[in-house]
TrEMBL record, chain A:
Chain ranges of the Cytochrome c domain: 47-126, 142-220
Entry's EC annotation: 7.1.1.8
Protein name as catalogued: Cytochrome bc1 complex cytochrome c subunit
Location relative to the cell: Cell membrane
Top enzyme category: translocase
Catalytic activity: a quinol + 2 Fe(III)-[cytochrome c](out) = a quinone + 2 Fe(II)-[cytochrome c](out) + 2 H(+)(out)
Entry-linked PROSITE patterns: CYTC
Phylogenetic placement of the source organism: Bacteria, Bacillati, Actinomycetota, Actinomycetes, Kitasatosporales
TrEMBL record, chain B:
InterPro entries the record matches: Cyt_b/b6_N (IPR005797), Cytb/b6-like_sf (IPR027387), Di-haem_cyt_TM (IPR016174)
Membrane-spanning parts: 56-75, 121-140, 152-172, 184-205, 217-242, 274-295, 337-361, 381-398, 418-437
PROSITE patterns per record: CYTB_NTER (PS51002)
Record flagged with keyword Transmembrane helix: yes
Catalytic activity: a quinol + 2 Fe(III)-[cytochrome c](out) = a quinone + 2 Fe(II)-[cytochrome c](out) + 2 H(+)(out)
Protein name: Cytochrome bc1 complex cytochrome b subunit
Residues annotated as domain Cytochrome b/b6 N-terminal region profile: 23-249
EC assignment: 7.1.1.8
Gene3D superfamilies given in the database record: Cytochrome Bc1 Complex, Chain C
Species of provenance: Streptomyces meridianus
Keywords, comma-separated and alphabetical: Membrane, Transmembrane, Transmembrane helix
Amino acid sequence: MKKLSARRRHPLAALVVLLFALAVTGGLYAAFAPADKAQADTTAQSLAIEEGKKLYSVGCASCHGTGGQGTSDGPSLVGVGSAAVDFQVGTGRMPAQQPGAQMPKKPKIYTQAETDQLGAYIASLGAGPIKPTEDQYSPEGANVAKGGELFRTNCAQCHNFTGKGGALTGGKYAPELDGVTPKHIYEAMQTGPQNMPSFPESVMPEKNKQDIIAYLGTVASGESESPGGLELGGLGPVAEGLFGWVFGLGALIAVAIWVAARTAKAKKS
Amino acid sequence: MSTSSTNPAGGTDGRKAPAGERVADWADGRLGIYGLAKANMRKIFPDHWSFMLGEIALYSFIIIILTGVYLTLFFHPSMNEVEYHGSYVPMHGILMSEAYASTLDISFDVRGGLLIRQIHHWGAIVFLAAMLVHMMRVFFTGAFRKPREINWLFGFLLLVLGMFTGFTGYSLPDDLLSGTGVRFMEGAVLSVPIVGTYLSFFLFGGEFPGTDFVPRFFSIHVLLLPGIMLGLLVAHLILVFYHKHTQFPGAGKTNKNVVGMPLMPVYMAKAGGFFFLVFGVISAMAAIATINPIWALGPYRPDQVSTGAQPDWYMGFSEGLIRIMPGWEINLWGHTLVLGVFIPLMIFPLVLAAIAVYPFIESWVTGDKREHHILDRPRNAPTRTAFGAAWISLYWVLLIGGGNDLWATHFHMSINAITWFVRVGFFAVPVLTFIVTKRICLGLQRRDRDTVLHGRESGIIKRLPHGEFVEVHEPLGQEQLHALTQHHQYQPIEAGPVVDENGVERKRTMAEKLRAKLSQGYYGQDSQIPKPTVEEYQEITSGHGHH
């Protein structure tokens, strides 16, 4: 007690008391306040929209506006559809951590159920691409070769031959596609997130999207084989040149030094 | 063996000579190689690892030829369109040229094909790298000086031809990456004013890509360029034998001798063993790491293109030149002059020529007509060393420019910022490198001077009776003193007199003035530290022992 009384005139004492008081008040409120009761008379859909709206107000509204109308910090979400939400939130790109040239992929914050609720809310703002079902994006039975051709025609300009990604202007980039789930690849093509153009049904039919997904799964995923040995990042001649100089020529120079150091000994006369 | 002409193979005493001797006799009687062998087999080669860089290039060239011959057995240099039905399932049913299909077959259906292909391509990467490093060794040690200027040019030509042989080689599979490279080249050809279009039509036999360039590149790649290179290589080696090898300065080494081991048997064994080591390292690379996985890239179609499309490293600096060049163009009377491509196309040979002509500039500045067989230590030629370093730095800056997209994605930078860095760096970095390198060389010269005059720091601290601490310096041995002071220091040349021998006023030519100015820059007061003279050395070593 002596210790406490000795410090009661400390300049920070008032602050400590205030924090303590706030904590007690908040704790008591949380304990006694009436719990939210679900509205039993609403349908599952409108319930999801309700819940989504709440999540939206907390996580998204600061940039996209309270009604999804967009602000100077974020685009309007009217008409982007649940597919866009599922992609952006499901890959962790949204909610954004900080402004920048492009929102990077990161560990996702919302569960799939919450993402769906957010999607339901955004979809209610205006019609847009709908989150695909599994039979839409499953690469089962798709044509890998055709997918490769389509990929090289439509995607390789930014994502590289085998989906290793590439640079765009001003710090933007096309991300690497290795490890992206078929659903998210499908949604990205549907909605054209960030700098990507969109490939709606009228431009690229569902079947072709499946072909591309199948191609990426075979050639450009963690499971794809590399018959020639180490892939060196699959980045082509720059990585190969670096490997050749460092390991090839490096090893040969080491060997040369070794050979030159082992010279025949002249006989001492 | 020298008596073989008078001796029947049976020998005078009735015993049969050993089989080897008889074979040698037989061959000498018909080829006269004995004299040649006698003159050259005991040729002395000095020992230094940096003298083996050229060997790496030579051996990788041999490996490339051997593997290349194997590849020609299975490659079809044709642009006929076929539908693929080979072993690589993800390509089934795709239309492609026969060249691409046969490269897929080499990779997946020919026994050992993929390994040989990868040895061939890795060998090319190493070959060019070894040539460049070898060239740098020759450059920085001044081995290009008289009498070796011609051989320097032969080596330089080998490098340039090697670049283009590599270029035509990686264009042959007709995959999407190489096709993009060929398209790049076509664009460069088109940018040439007036004749560009005609040249392009001539090269491709019509509109790009046509059906001609693969067979044409094939002939150039397997016949024309390697043929010229082989000839140049032989000439290069003959001149090495004729001039004898250079050596680093040291006790007992003069411009009139070569200190080392004889070719036969020591260097034969070493070189033979080294060949297999080079072969082994390149094969190991080919077995470990994939190169140019054309199956993942797809066949070339002019309507397709991928990001991350770069040439092999030795063409990377041309890619850098294009990537950093602003897209300028001028329209004149309905004709477009594409400066954004044409200027880089002109700078490309200039970058290469800068290093090629340097030996001639230096010999003009020094006016030195003597033969040089003792190598320079790079620090003792600060201007040359600084020039070489500046050239390398320019090359590097351009390589960064050529890979600007990968720098951007892997270091999370803006590609625009990198491009601007390279644009500024193209002008600034070589100048900075030149200044810094020259300072470093002069610093090293000062240290050499100090070491000669004051000896080596021994690390032993001695306390004098009055309390002062001094470090004991050990005087250098005779050999070390020789190595540090044997080099010749040029004096700057003055521009000729204003009046000629008859007292008549004469005009100094521009060249004369330029040469005097350059000479001042090379050997003036700020460009070299006078090496210690004998008097200085004696004064400091006699009398007051340690300083």
